[in-house]
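Curious: explain these tokens?
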Amino acid sequence: MIKHYTIGIDYGTESGRAVLVDLANGEEVAEHVTPYIHGVIDQHLPAGGVVLEREWALQHPRDYIDVLEQSVPAVLKEAGVDPSQVIGIGIDFTACTMLPVDEDGEPLCFQAGFANRPHAWVKLWKHHAAQDEADEINRIGAEREEAFLQRYGGKYSSEWMMAKIWQVFNEDRDMFDEADAFLEGTDWVTAQLTGTIVRNSCTAGYKAMWHKQDGYPDDAFFEALHPDLRRLTATKLRGEIRAPGEAAGSLTKEMAERTGLLPGIAVAVGNVDAHVSVPATGVVTPGKLVMAMGTSICHLVLAEEEKEVEGMCGVVEDGIVPGYYGYEAGQSAVGDIFAWFMEHGLTSDLVDEAKQKNRPIHALLEEKAAAYQPGETGLLALDWWNGNRSTLVDTNLSGIIIGMTLQTKSEEIYRTLLEATAFGTKKIVEAFTKAGVEVNELVACGGLPQKNNLLMQIFADVTNLEIKVAASKQTPALGAAMYASVAAGEAAGGYSTIFAAAEKMARVQEKSYKPNAERAQVYEEIYKEYSKLHDYFGRGENDVMKTLRSVRDKAKGGTVLA
């Protein structure tokens, strides 16, 4: 019997990863990572060295093509699989990752005339410089009682498509006019594979105000933003929108030669990294909240009805799996907070001890942090190092730690940051359940659950919910490969539905994290204090975080005398 495979490619923040998957059982036969040469561009542009302002985060689209040309041939070679056995390819992406293109679909940053213009480049998901535009979208949307606003929990984020497009319009009008269209990164890369631009309903719904029944908001809303934006969706966002699992087209001869695959195989519609992970964990029914845990966390849950949930990132019909409404919420920084601490928060004695014991510093830090009981550190933190995505939807918020003394140790601060991210997730779970969206179990995937047992146990104790962990280490890529098998179809050796694919290909680990009743009770008391701080600093009673940001920006601009 001939084995069939698909390839899933997960485009992350720093690199892209291709995984070759056996369709019979979901086994990840081979994987290969291609780091982005240009990484995250947040200081100055590659061409000309134009200095970027604060809150900017860009990328180079050439890095995305490198992943196709390097990682796809690598997994074929490693596995020794004949290209004729590969029946499809699918990709997922961070979102909203947006780029302007010309009428040929080429990124404007590739043109010499635009290479030194920041708005010509890819705006990464964590580009937060469009907060002013997001604030105005929310104000005008609320005044007009726009229906789309409630589907985003009452606030539209600066991370998403319309805010980023409007920032381009406001700050570089000539370039906005030059752009033939604005595309999600996942749609642009898919178009490189097929030769045809097709938009996906996942990013259109969660990031660009699109609704399966209603489409985009009407022209009058965009005219209220600016008269020249009236026809925005009909012009710069035009194009067919297809759902996850559908084929965007077939692989072109040129891209087949560059990847080592056969021309004509199915290319699945693009998807979002977190959303495509859901069926890869085996979750295809309501009640289970999937946490895609990495630099940030995306929280995703299925339901049979559309509800209004405070601060959710969106609810989209068929947005995750067909037949259900898919809900998204999230935390803008989780792994990023821990990485920040590892770079800036370690004391010299802890570093020296790790060297003396010849142990990885992270392992030693986790061991020491695990020795504390809940509440023993005397510390509490708000997890807003990169703003708050849910439930407050405000990128201008910042982090805080209280309870510090002269005796406070690095491991105590580290544990407190772990706990803060768990409290942030509990706040999101509460918002869902309060709105009538059932959550009775957590399922974790991504890089963090694979290497941080303490973090996962804290999450279980804080939320008082059992946490299961995906068996796959590359869940987004597996999900993309699963949807590629659906795009290829049964006749080619794939699957007829994502439900059928999940039954054969998805799995979780035998081990799970169960909450400890005593620890959960202590955390419930601490969580009450977290909630007080959350509302005090996050709901307008004390805007000190925003005041400090404003003073900082004035000082940086030289308007405040020393």
Q: What stands out?
A: The chain has two domains: 5-275+475-509, 283-471+516-562. The CA atoms of residues 25 and 47 lie 46 Å apart. The first helix runs from residue 61 to 79.
